Amino acid sequence: MLKGTPGWADLMFRESAAMISTMLDLMNDNVPSLSIHDSLVVPASKQALAVGLLTANYRREAQAIPGLMVHGADGSATPIS
Q: What are the residue ranges spanned by the domains of the chain?
């Protein structure tokens, strides 16, 4: 690993902080959410809000743009860029 680059534990912490911040933001907007591994389950009607919050929180915590995938109830998967 190069000196000055974050290690795996730091990256995991940053990702976790982004997820917790997103869940707290959703809770403040009265939106239920459930974290499962590296996923966040929200009502379909709040998908856009959750994507926006998670993207913003991930950018703040990790200084990177996350690669997100939205999975629908019908099993579809849509990448979000």
A: 8-80
